Amino acid sequence: MASITDDIAQYDLLRNKLEIDHTGEWVLVHDGSLIGLFPCFDSAAREAVRQFGRGPYLIRQIGAPPIVLPAAVLYGLNRA
User: pTM score, two decimals?
Assistant: First the structure.
């Protein structure tokens, strides 16, 4: 089973090619493989959950900069 790091690496390998014809679409990557392209986040997320449950998997908008989350979100430091 690949990690989310493998999914990100696979996306990075495909990014330039995807940006030529698919900018603005959403990509689903799981276990280091491109699963599909989708017109919106919701359709990518529905397919991801249908096929893979809770994940991990990568859903990213093609051409959008990566989102950087604060450490508090990444590590759950803001729990009450």
Answer: 0.79
